[in-house]
């Protein structure tokens, strides 16, 4: 099993240290900045061997070059976006099984937020690193792709097992919740999750990771094929892409 350490950085980013005990491999997922990562590595006496990037945005790759130079770490990132991943050594994409130490990571292409966004799924450890694609009760903005692409990326991820922990890259849950209740007010799973999120935040605790089963039942962006969501945005059921696009549009201006 992987050992996973969550490091909150900047205003709302999460960076993750991932250690594979059999090999001693230590990876960092989406290092927005280098210093807090270095401090945590030092505290644990871990030596960084890998940088795993999900997409090219600065708050995900900002620490790449410095960490690569300091630890001679291998930088892994999306093949489809290799030109925009600083220091990339290994390019991965849909269907690849990347061996991180002794742990296989299945790679998914999940375009939408950016053209070359990927996710890493460690099935044995029940851990998904999905960057800015699924957030708890939300999803990333569709910057470079189309609603159709983003919906199929979300659909791919929501099919993972219920007990998969969703390690997303931002603590946006409470503001996502404020929007979610406007488009899915009669969903008891959403109301339960909102109560839990409020409790966690009041105690100063993270709401991430969440569980995929929870997201599939409560996250409106994973429910665009549900009649309740279509009705809430005034569309007829049966066209999840149109419903997704409308829910996303409303969130953009919320
Ligand atoms: Zn991003
Ligand atoms: Fe981000």
* Portion in strands: 15-25%
- The number of distinct structural domains comes to 1
The coarse overall form would be globular
Helical percentage: 25-40%
Strand order of the largest sheet: 1-2-3-4-5-6
**SSE string, helices as H and strands as E:** EEEHEHHEEEEEEEEHEHHEHHH
Rg over CA atoms, rounded to whole Å, is: 18 Å
Question: What would the CATH topology be?
Answer: Metallo-beta-lactamase, Chain A
Largest sheet: 6 strands, mixed
Q: Please write the CATH class name.
A: Alpha Beta
**Superfamily at the CATH H level?**
Ribonuclease Z/Hydroxyacylglutathione hydrolase-like
Regions with pLDDT < 50 over 5+ consecutive residues? none
The average pLDDT score comes to 98
Question: Could you walk me through the main structural features you see in this protein, from its secondary elements to its overall organization?
Answer:
The protein is α/β, with parallel strands linked by helices. It has one domain (3-252): Ribonuclease Z/Hydroxyacylglutathione hydrolase-like (Metallo-beta-lactamase, Chain A, 4-Layer Sandwich), CATH 3.60.15. It has nine helices and 14 strands. It has helices spanning 35-44, 58-61, 64-71, 147-158, 173-183, 188-202, 212-218, 227-232, 240-252, and strands at residues 3-9, 13-20, 25-29, 50-52, 74-78, 90-92, 97-100, 103-109, 118-122, 127-131, 134-135, 138-139, 165-168, 210-211. Helix 1 links the parallel strand 3 and strand 4. The model has no long low-confidence stretch (mean pLDDT 98). The chain binds zinc ion and fe (iii) ion (FE). Residues 55, 57, 60, 113, 132 line the site of zinc ion.
